[in-house]
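A further point concerns the way the authors explain their paired sequence and structure data. An entry of this sort, consisting of the sequence and the corresponding C-alpha cells, reads as follows:
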Amino acid sequence: MELRAAMAGLAALTKPCSVEIYSDSKYLVDANNKKWIEGWKKKGWKRGKGEKLANADLWQELDRLRAKHEVTWHWVKGHAGHAENERCDDLATEAADGEGLIEDFGFEASA
C-alpha cells in the first residue's frame, strides 16, 4: 500500500515540482534511493537472475510518475511516534477494514 500511496501522491501533482516523500517502507525508499528501480528497468522489470519482480506493473507506474518530478525519499520508522506516519497508518487501517474496497485487478495477474 505504501507504493500505491506514493503513486497517488505523485499523480495528484498538476505540474513538475520538487517533492519529499516520507514512508515507513524501507523497500519503497531503498528502491528509489539505492537505484533498484533503474536496475529492474534495465533487466526488463525483473530482479537478479531473471526472477520475476513482484508488482512490476506498480513499479513501472511509479517510475513513470516520479520521472516528472524531483523526488527526495525519506524513511521513517513505523509505529515510533512520528505523528504523520501514525495518522497515515490509522487511515489505512480504517480504509482496509471498511466497505466498498476497490478491486486490484493487477494483483491476481502478478501472483
About this structure: The domain at 2-8+18-110 is CATH 3.30.420.10 (Nucleotidyltransferase; domain 5).
